[in-house]
Amino acid sequence: MSVTTPRGFRAAGVAAGLKASGGADVALVVNDGPDAGVAGVFTTNRVKAAPVRWSQQVVQGGVVRAVVLNSGGANACTGPAGFQDTHATAEHTASALSAVSPRLLLGAGEVAVCSTGLIGERLPMPKLLPGVRSAIRGLSRDGGLAAAEAIMTTDTRPKTTVARGSGWTVGGMAKGSGMLAPGMATMLCVLTTDAVAGPATLDEALRAATRVTFDRVDSDGCMSTNDTVLLLSSGASGIEPTPAELAAAVTAACHDLAQQLIADAEGATKQVAIDVVGAASEDDAVEVGRSVARSNLVKTALFGNDPNWGRILASVGTTAAAFEPDEVDVAVNGVWLCRGGAAAEDRSKADLTGRDVTIRIDLHAGDSTATIWTNDLSHAYVHENSAYST
Predict the structure, then answer these.
(1) What is the mean pLDDT of residues 255-262?
(2) What is the value of pTM for the model shown?
(3) Which of 115, 224, 225, 295 allows an S-S link to 179, with CB 3.0 to 4.6 Å?
């Protein structure tokens, strides 16, 4: 259940001293081939961390043989020096890997870099680079879980997944529990496959998957500077699935990881699915769902077990979606509290005492649908984020 489940991959996770806690904070995923195809999607935040800008360039080359990731520091908003630190990390990783695995013979341009943690401070390179060497020594086919643990920040548990094809596999790991909002990815994620697939096919599959999974996770409306999702192919299975088969497996893996992310959202006591139906277009459905997901009034009501459907309808009304206010229906956990834009069943019938909540909004404006996943807003979320950097 990890990035090393597909054949052709090794991984490791080690403690390099980047985290004050002393926990694991450097991860490495290596593609031993024979292929080394890659695709990536990245944050659309205009303020991009140095590793994002570096990895965007690397992915354009279509070949990635290693991904080095660190927690304990985002290397974002660190200027030219921070970008040079990322470049140095890639060069160091390529050189050290080539020295112990001559058959790889990779250059810095074949190493993607990902970072996560506090924004605005440079990484301690005298700790990071020895950590990379330690990770190289620890590479193994069983290292997937250790790698997933090393990229955690405020996560309470590692997040890994596997989706199986016919003789080939997709594996993955992700981190993220805060700053989860649409903008492509909303976290760090590495996906691997031993299927035979070129960069163009990988890119098509990855973009189709993230559009309906990671892009529709909206925990707190805050878009990160470091969001990265990478898909690597080793071709070690010798099997080339159809593009549709590959896209289905990648989507299944991304969906599983997206659900793990929202389940581990900072301070969450509710896991919420907002199903928008009857929309004039998919974009309208997404806009409506996202508006409700980002409403602090809705999120705090859910935390208090209050099925306050008026707050939901008010959020729907802030969008540019096509609908008639007097035709909208709203259900909470299967109870239609609002019909035709007015009160329907007694709100006391909607039981919110459990963790799982489903909000269904019928716009009666068309046939399009979309689901956005979010969570409630609790005291614990406020506390955790008020003290994050201190």
Answers:
(1) 93
(2) 0.93
(3) 224
